[in-house]
Description:
This protein is an alpha/beta fold. About 30% of the residues lie in helices and about 25% in strands. About 40% of the residues are buried.
Amino acid sequence: MLRVGLLxxxxxxxxxxxxxxxxxxxxxxxxxxxxPWAPHPRKSVDSIEALLAGCDLVVEAAGHExxxxxxxxxxxxxxxxxxxxxxxxxxxxxLDDLRHPPASHQSQRLGKLYISTGxxxxxxxxxxxxxxxxxxxxxxxxxxPAKNLIRxxxxxxxxxxxxxxxxxxxxxxxxxxxxxxxxxxxxxxxATAALATIGFDRTQATLVGDPNRQTVRHEIKVEAESGRYGxxxxxxxxxxxxxxxxxxxxxxxxxxxALAESDEVMLL
Length: 268
Ligand SMILES: NC(=O)c1ccc[n+]([C@@H]2O[C@H](COP(=O)([O-])OP(=O)(O)OC[C@H]3O[C@@H](n4cnc5c(N)ncnc54)[C@H](O)[C@@H]3O)[C@@H](O)[C@H]2O)c1
Protein backbone atom coordinates (compact mmCIF):
# COMPACT_ATOMS: atom_id res chain seq x y z
CA MET A 1 0.00 0.00 0.00
CA LEU A 2 1.42 3.42 -1.00
CA ARG A 3 0.98 5.73 1.99
CA VAL A 4 0.39 9.25 0.71
CA GLY A 5 1.00 12.37 2.79
CA LEU A 6 -0.40 15.72 1.76
CA LEU A 7 1.50 18.94 2.32
CA UNK A 8 -1.26 21.50 1.80
CA UNK A 9 -5.00 21.01 2.13
CA UNK A 10 -6.35 23.78 -0.08
CA UNK A 11 -8.08 23.60 -3.47
CA UNK A 12 -5.80 20.82 -4.72
CA UNK A 13 -5.12 19.00 -1.46
CA UNK A 14 -8.78 18.63 -0.47
CA UNK A 15 -9.67 16.97 -3.79
CA UNK A 16 -6.70 14.62 -3.62
CA UNK A 17 -7.60 13.72 -0.02
CA UNK A 18 -11.19 13.02 -1.05
CA UNK A 19 -10.12 10.78 -3.92
CA UNK A 20 -7.78 8.81 -1.65
CA UNK A 21 -10.36 8.46 1.12
CA UNK A 22 -13.02 7.40 -1.37
CA UNK A 23 -10.77 4.55 -2.50
CA UNK A 24 -10.32 6.00 -5.99
CA UNK A 25 -6.64 5.12 -6.05
CA UNK A 26 -6.30 1.38 -5.60
CA UNK A 27 -3.13 0.53 -3.73
CA UNK A 28 -2.84 3.95 -2.05
CA UNK A 29 -4.17 5.44 1.17
CA UNK A 30 -4.22 8.85 2.78
CA UNK A 31 -1.64 8.63 5.55
CA UNK A 32 -1.65 12.19 6.84
CA UNK A 33 -2.20 15.86 6.04
CA UNK A 34 0.00 18.73 7.19
CA UNK A 35 -1.62 22.13 6.84
CA PRO A 36 -1.81 24.20 10.04
CA TRP A 37 -4.30 26.63 8.46
CA ALA A 38 -6.71 24.12 6.90
CA PRO A 39 -6.65 20.93 8.93
CA HIS A 40 -8.10 17.69 7.67
CA PRO A 41 -10.92 16.43 9.92
CA ARG A 42 -9.37 13.00 10.50
CA LYS A 43 -5.83 12.82 9.18
CA SER A 44 -4.15 16.03 10.31
CA VAL A 45 -0.66 15.89 11.74
CA ASP A 46 1.02 18.80 13.47
CA SER A 47 4.48 18.78 11.94
CA ILE A 48 6.36 17.84 8.81
CA GLU A 49 8.27 15.26 10.87
CA ALA A 50 5.01 13.55 11.84
CA LEU A 51 3.92 13.57 8.18
CA LEU A 52 7.19 12.02 7.03
CA ALA A 53 7.12 9.39 9.76
CA GLY A 54 3.97 7.85 8.30
CA CYS A 55 4.16 8.09 4.51
CA ASP A 56 6.01 6.85 1.43
CA LEU A 57 5.20 9.80 -0.82
CA VAL A 58 4.40 13.46 -0.14
CA VAL A 59 2.22 15.44 -2.51
CA GLU A 60 3.31 19.06 -2.15
CA ALA A 61 0.33 21.32 -2.86
CA ALA A 62 1.12 24.11 -0.41
CA GLY A 63 2.96 26.78 -2.40
CA HIS A 64 6.46 27.96 -3.12
CA GLU A 65 7.48 28.74 0.47
CA UNK A 66 6.41 25.34 1.73
CA UNK A 67 8.36 23.61 -1.04
CA UNK A 68 11.43 25.68 -0.12
CA UNK A 69 10.98 24.93 3.56
CA UNK A 70 10.37 21.16 3.37
CA UNK A 71 11.19 19.77 -0.07
CA UNK A 72 14.78 18.81 0.68
CA UNK A 73 13.82 17.25 4.04
CA UNK A 74 11.24 15.08 2.27
CA UNK A 75 13.82 13.61 -0.10
CA UNK A 76 16.44 13.22 2.64
CA UNK A 77 13.93 11.18 4.67
CA UNK A 78 13.74 8.75 1.70
CA UNK A 79 10.17 9.80 1.06
CA UNK A 80 9.17 10.40 -2.56
CA UNK A 81 8.03 13.93 -3.45
CA UNK A 82 5.47 14.95 -6.07
CA UNK A 83 5.82 18.69 -6.66
CA UNK A 84 2.72 20.62 -7.70
CA UNK A 85 4.05 24.17 -7.08
CA UNK A 86 6.25 23.74 -10.15
CA UNK A 87 6.85 27.49 -10.63
CA UNK A 88 8.98 27.45 -7.47
CA UNK A 89 11.58 25.46 -9.42
CA UNK A 90 12.45 28.61 -11.39
CA UNK A 91 14.58 29.36 -8.33
CA UNK A 92 17.84 27.76 -9.51
CA UNK A 93 19.10 27.09 -6.01
CA UNK A 94 15.91 25.35 -4.94
CA LEU A 95 15.88 23.16 -8.04
CA ASP A 96 19.53 22.29 -7.51
CA ASP A 97 19.01 21.56 -3.79
CA LEU A 98 16.02 19.34 -4.57
CA ARG A 99 17.94 17.44 -7.23
CA HIS A 100 21.08 17.07 -5.11
CA PRO A 101 20.16 17.69 -1.46
CA PRO A 102 23.08 19.54 0.19
CA ALA A 103 23.41 17.29 3.24
CA SER A 104 23.32 14.05 1.27
CA HIS A 105 26.29 11.95 0.25
CA GLN A 106 26.55 10.03 -3.00
CA SER A 107 25.58 6.61 -1.70
CA GLN A 108 22.61 7.92 0.32
CA ARG A 109 19.21 6.72 -0.83
CA LEU A 110 16.86 9.64 -1.46
CA GLY A 111 13.15 9.80 -2.10
CA LYS A 112 12.30 10.15 -5.78
CA LEU A 113 11.48 13.56 -7.20
CA TYR A 114 8.36 13.79 -9.39
CA ILE A 115 6.92 16.87 -11.11
CA SER A 116 3.16 17.04 -11.56
CA THR A 117 1.91 17.65 -15.10
CA GLY A 118 -0.69 19.91 -13.46
CA UNK A 119 -2.93 21.89 -15.75
CA UNK A 120 -1.41 20.83 -19.09
CA UNK A 121 -0.40 17.78 -21.11
CA UNK A 122 1.66 16.95 -24.18
CA UNK A 123 4.81 16.80 -22.06
CA UNK A 124 5.51 13.21 -23.09
CA UNK A 125 5.74 14.35 -26.72
CA UNK A 126 7.96 17.29 -25.83
CA UNK A 127 10.31 15.06 -23.84
CA UNK A 128 10.51 12.65 -26.76
CA UNK A 129 11.17 15.56 -29.14
CA UNK A 130 14.03 16.76 -26.95
CA UNK A 131 15.57 13.28 -27.10
CA UNK A 132 15.44 13.22 -30.89
CA UNK A 133 17.23 16.53 -31.32
CA UNK A 134 17.27 20.27 -30.80
CA UNK A 135 14.18 22.11 -29.59
CA UNK A 136 14.48 25.53 -31.16
CA UNK A 137 11.75 27.46 -29.40
CA UNK A 138 8.94 27.11 -26.86
CA UNK A 139 6.34 29.87 -26.66
CA UNK A 140 3.42 29.93 -24.29
CA UNK A 141 0.50 32.29 -24.05
CA UNK A 142 -1.67 31.94 -20.95
CA UNK A 143 -4.89 33.93 -20.90
CA UNK A 144 -6.64 34.18 -17.54
CA PRO A 145 -9.55 36.01 -15.93
CA ALA A 146 -8.05 39.50 -15.48
CA LYS A 147 -8.65 39.78 -11.73
CA ASN A 148 -6.66 36.59 -11.10
CA LEU A 149 -3.49 38.29 -12.30
CA ILE A 150 -3.53 41.22 -9.88
CA ARG A 151 -0.37 41.20 -7.77
CA UNK A 152 0.77 43.32 -4.79
CA UNK A 153 3.79 44.73 -6.69
CA UNK A 154 1.66 46.22 -9.51
CA UNK A 155 1.11 49.96 -9.69
CA UNK A 156 -2.40 51.37 -9.07
CA UNK A 157 -3.01 51.92 -12.78
CA UNK A 158 -2.36 48.31 -13.79
CA UNK A 159 -4.34 47.00 -10.84
CA UNK A 160 -7.28 49.13 -11.88
CA UNK A 161 -7.06 48.01 -15.51
CA UNK A 162 -7.12 44.37 -14.38
CA UNK A 163 -9.87 44.94 -11.82
CA UNK A 164 -12.21 47.08 -13.91
CA UNK A 165 -10.97 47.26 -17.52
CA UNK A 166 -13.03 46.05 -20.48
CA UNK A 167 -10.16 44.89 -22.73
CA UNK A 168 -7.66 42.06 -22.54
CA UNK A 169 -4.23 43.28 -21.46
CA UNK A 170 -0.76 41.70 -21.68
CA UNK A 171 0.72 41.83 -18.18
CA UNK A 172 3.93 39.99 -18.91
CA UNK A 173 6.01 38.81 -21.85
CA UNK A 174 9.47 37.36 -21.36
CA UNK A 175 11.42 34.38 -20.06
CA UNK A 176 9.54 31.76 -18.03
CA UNK A 177 11.94 32.29 -15.11
CA UNK A 178 10.80 35.88 -14.69
CA UNK A 179 7.12 34.95 -15.16
CA UNK A 180 7.43 32.48 -12.27
CA UNK A 181 9.06 35.08 -10.01
CA UNK A 182 6.45 37.77 -10.73
CA UNK A 183 3.35 35.53 -10.84
CA UNK A 184 4.10 32.62 -8.50
CA UNK A 185 0.53 31.24 -8.48
CA UNK A 186 -0.08 31.80 -12.19
CA UNK A 187 3.00 30.59 -14.02
CA UNK A 188 3.27 26.94 -12.94
CA UNK A 189 2.38 25.78 -16.41
CA UNK A 190 5.19 27.63 -18.16
CA ALA A 191 7.55 26.21 -15.53
CA THR A 192 6.39 22.68 -16.39
CA ALA A 193 6.87 23.30 -20.12
CA ALA A 194 10.29 24.84 -19.44
CA LEU A 195 11.43 21.86 -17.36
CA ALA A 196 10.28 19.46 -20.07
CA THR A 197 12.10 21.31 -22.86
CA ILE A 198 14.67 24.11 -23.07
CA GLY A 199 14.65 25.49 -19.54
CA PHE A 200 13.42 28.60 -17.78
CA ASP A 201 15.58 31.14 -19.63
CA ARG A 202 14.77 30.12 -23.20
CA THR A 203 11.06 29.29 -22.76
CA GLN A 204 9.04 32.40 -23.56
CA ALA A 205 5.88 33.16 -21.61
CA THR A 206 3.15 35.70 -22.18
CA LEU A 207 0.41 36.30 -19.59
CA VAL A 208 -2.80 37.98 -20.64
CA GLY A 209 -5.57 39.20 -18.32
CA ASP A 210 -8.97 39.10 -20.00
CA PRO A 211 -11.94 40.59 -18.13
CA ASN A 212 -14.37 38.62 -20.29
CA ARG A 213 -12.84 35.23 -19.59
CA GLN A 214 -14.00 32.72 -16.97
CA THR A 215 -11.69 29.88 -18.00
CA VAL A 216 -7.90 29.65 -18.23
CA ARG A 217 -6.44 29.12 -21.69
CA HIS A 218 -2.88 27.94 -22.34
CA GLU A 219 -1.50 27.92 -25.88
CA ILE A 220 1.86 26.27 -26.38
CA LYS A 221 3.88 26.39 -29.62
CA VAL A 222 7.05 24.39 -30.05
CA GLU A 223 9.48 24.34 -32.97
CA ALA A 224 11.80 21.36 -32.87
CA GLU A 225 14.04 19.29 -35.09
CA SER A 226 11.48 16.48 -34.81
CA GLY A 227 8.57 18.68 -35.92
CA ARG A 228 6.24 21.45 -34.96
CA TYR A 229 3.80 21.14 -32.08
CA GLY A 230 0.84 23.19 -30.91
CA UNK A 231 -1.34 22.53 -27.89
CA UNK A 232 -4.28 24.42 -26.49
CA UNK A 233 -5.73 23.75 -23.06
CA UNK A 234 -8.80 25.55 -21.80
CA UNK A 235 -9.46 24.76 -18.16
CA UNK A 236 -12.32 25.64 -15.85
CA UNK A 237 -11.09 27.14 -12.59
CA UNK A 238 -11.46 25.51 -9.19
CA UNK A 239 -14.49 26.74 -7.22
CA UNK A 240 -12.22 26.84 -4.16
CA UNK A 241 -9.36 28.81 -5.72
CA UNK A 242 -9.92 30.78 -8.95
CA UNK A 243 -6.15 30.84 -9.60
CA UNK A 244 -6.06 27.05 -9.83
CA UNK A 245 -7.55 24.99 -12.65
CA UNK A 246 -10.06 22.39 -11.49
CA UNK A 247 -8.23 19.62 -13.36
CA UNK A 248 -4.98 19.91 -11.36
CA UNK A 249 -5.92 17.65 -8.40
CA UNK A 250 -7.05 15.04 -10.90
CA UNK A 251 -3.65 15.18 -12.61
CA UNK A 252 -2.25 14.34 -9.17
CA UNK A 253 -4.75 11.49 -8.74
CA UNK A 254 -3.80 10.16 -12.18
CA UNK A 255 -0.13 10.23 -11.18
CA UNK A 256 -0.89 8.44 -7.89
CA UNK A 257 -2.78 5.78 -9.79
CA ALA A 258 0.15 5.25 -12.12
CA LEU A 259 2.47 4.91 -9.12
CA ALA A 260 0.24 2.78 -6.90
CA GLU A 261 -1.93 0.59 -9.09
CA SER A 262 0.01 -2.30 -10.48
CA ASP A 263 -2.78 -3.25 -12.89
CA GLU A 264 -3.53 0.31 -14.02
CA VAL A 265 -3.21 0.71 -17.81
CA MET A 266 -0.35 3.14 -18.07
CA LEU A 267 0.02 5.71 -20.80
CA LEU A 268 3.77 5.85 -21.10
N1 LIG B 1 1.37 22.60 -11.60
C1 LIG B 1 0.29 23.28 -11.94
O1 LIG B 1 -0.13 23.27 -13.12
C2 LIG B 1 -0.46 24.04 -10.89
C3 LIG B 1 -1.74 24.51 -11.17
C4 LIG B 1 -2.43 25.20 -10.17
C5 LIG B 1 -1.82 25.46 -8.94
N2 LIG B 1 -0.56 25.04 -8.71
C6 LIG B 1 0.12 25.33 -7.45
O2 LIG B 1 -0.26 24.36 -6.46
C7 LIG B 1 -0.15 24.96 -5.16
C8 LIG B 1 -1.43 24.71 -4.38
O3 LIG B 1 -2.53 25.27 -5.08
P1 LIG B 1 -3.97 25.39 -4.38
O4 LIG B 1 -4.88 25.96 -5.39
O5 LIG B 1 -4.32 24.11 -3.70
O6 LIG B 1 -3.66 26.50 -3.28
P2 LIG B 1 -4.54 26.87 -2.02
O7 LIG B 1 -4.12 28.25 -1.63
O8 LIG B 1 -5.98 26.60 -2.25
O9 LIG B 1 -4.03 25.83 -0.92
C9 LIG B 1 -2.72 25.84 -0.41
C10 LIG B 1 -2.78 25.26 1.00
O10 LIG B 1 -1.45 25.13 1.48
C11 LIG B 1 -1.43 25.51 2.86
N3 LIG B 1 -0.06 25.92 3.20
C12 LIG B 1 0.57 27.06 2.87
N4 LIG B 1 1.81 27.06 3.39
C13 LIG B 1 1.95 25.89 4.06
C14 LIG B 1 3.00 25.33 4.82
N5 LIG B 1 4.16 25.97 4.99
N6 LIG B 1 2.81 24.12 5.37
C15 LIG B 1 1.65 23.45 5.20
N7 LIG B 1 0.60 23.94 4.49
C16 LIG B 1 0.76 25.16 3.94
C17 LIG B 1 -2.43 26.64 2.96
O11 LIG B 1 -2.92 26.75 4.30
C18 LIG B 1 -3.52 26.19 1.99
O12 LIG B 1 -4.56 25.46 2.65
C19 LIG B 1 0.16 26.44 -5.40
O13 LIG B 1 1.55 26.66 -5.27
C20 LIG B 1 -0.25 26.67 -6.84
O14 LIG B 1 0.47 27.73 -7.44
C21 LIG B 1 0.12 24.32 -9.65
